[in-house]
Amino acid sequence: MQLSKEAILAKANSASKNTLMETLNIEMIDYGPDFLVAKMPVNSRVYQPDGVLHGGATAALAESVGSFASHIFLDTEHLFVRGIEITANHLKSVKDGFVYAKATFLHKGRTTQLLDIRITDDHDNLISICRLSTISLPKSK
Predict the structure, then answer these.
(1) Residue 1 has pLDDT above 60, yes or no
(2) In the annotation, is 6 catalytic?
(3) Catalytic residue among 27, 63, 77, 85
């Protein structure tokens, strides 16, 4: 049975309860056949000491959306997915509003996956470019 876009987003967001994603107010907001988008508010909860978005919060957003993308697009009934490496290049700072992370696959293998994650602001300015590698391993019986 194929789930609707709304059902997939609701499932992803309900899985965030009592996690870092809930702490950072990360919300999955859009989904398509080859992408997943999340948003996160930029406020004092995610600032570094000089009052701009912390790179660690940006990386947490990127890993969250990338990991959820792997869960959605792979057979997680028989596999579990874990992030194994993330890189982030921060290009511009943000003080307020929201940041949006769009994850798309560069490689969708049976065992390893590579995702490109672009972080933009409310004005579609590129804030960060991240790459996430995930691994899919069989679940124990």
Answers:
(1) no
(2) no
(3) 63
